[in-house]
Fold this sequence. Notes:
Layout lengths: L1 H20 L6 H24 L7 H16 L5 H23 L4 H21 L9 E2 L5 E2 L3 E2 L3 H23 L2 H11 L1 H6 L4 H27 L1 E2 L6 H14 L6 H15 L6 H16 L4 H13 L5
Antiparallel strand pairs: 1-4, 2-3
Helix pairs in contact: 2-6, 2-9, 2-10, 2-11, 3-4, 3-5, 3-9, 4-5, 4-9, 6-9, 7-9, 10-11
Amino acid sequence: MPARGNGRWLGGGLLLAAGLVAPYVVYPVFAMKVLCFALFACAFNLLLGYTGLLSFGHAAFLGSAGYVTAYTVKSLGFSPGLGLLAGTACAAVLGLVIGWLAIRRSGIYFAMITLGLAQVIYFLSLQLEFTGGEDGIQGVPRGVLFGVLPLDNPLVMYHFVLAVFLFGFWVVYRAIHSPFGQVLKAIRENEPRAVSLGYDVHRYKLLAFVLSATLAGLAGGTKSLVFQLASLTDVHWHTSGEVVLMTLLGGLGTEFGPVVGALLVVTLNNYLAGFGSWVTVITGAIFVVCVLAFRRGIVGEILAFARSRSAPKDP
C-alpha cells in the first residue's frame, strides 16, 4: 500500500510538471487540445473502466456542451466562466435523461441505446438554427475570465485549461477512491452480488453516468473556447469511438491511462495529418499492435510490471 501511494504521488507530480512545462515545449493550442481530450477520456474511463458501462454516445455530451458554451458566450454575451458552466450544466441534464433511459439495459443493448440517442443529438445539432448547421458556431470570443484574466493570451488560456483539467482529474480521482467508487467497482465485477448486498445498482449507475457526462461536457465547453469553434465533429459518432480508443490504449481502469491514451491519439492525428485519409489506417494499425502487445493498455502494463517486481519472492 505505501508503494502504491508513492506511485500515485509520483504520477501526479509528473503529470503536474508536464502540464506546467508543456506550453514552452510544444504549441500551446496543441497542448490545450491534449488536455481537453484527456479530461474527456478520464470522464469516459470513470464509466467504462470503473463501472463497466460501455457508452458509444459520449460525444453527445462533449459536443452539446461545446455548442451551448459557444452560443451563450457569442450570442448571449456570457462571460467565458458562465458560458462554460452553462455548457457543463447542459451536459449534466442531458446525461441524466440519456442515463435514465440507458441504464435500464446492460451490455450491448446499453451501448446501442447510447449510440442511438447520441445520433438524435447529432441530428438536432445539424438542424437547429442556433447551432449554425454544417458551419457550426465560429468566432467564439474567449473574453476575460473573472474580469482580470485575458483568455486571448495563449499562455493565460493554457493555464486556465490546465486548471480545468486538474479539477476534473481530481473529481475523478476522489470518486474512484471513495466508498462510491468502491461500489462502482463492485458493480463492474459482479452486479448480482452488489444487488444482493443491498445496493441500489441503478441509482449508482445513473450517478456514475451523470458525473461522467458532466465532466465530458466540461471538456467540450473548454474545447469550444480553446478553438473558438463548436462544430459537428464533436457530436459525431467518430468522436465517441475515438475516446474508446484513447481509454483502451492508455489503460482501462487506471488513473493515468486515459491521459496517456489521449496524448498518443492526439499526437498521432496531429503529426500524421499529412497522410490524409491514411491517418485512420495508420492509427488503426497502431491500435491493433498496442492491443496485442499491451493487453492492459500502456499504463496498465507498466503497473502490472511494477507489481510483479515488488511482489515478495518465494524462498
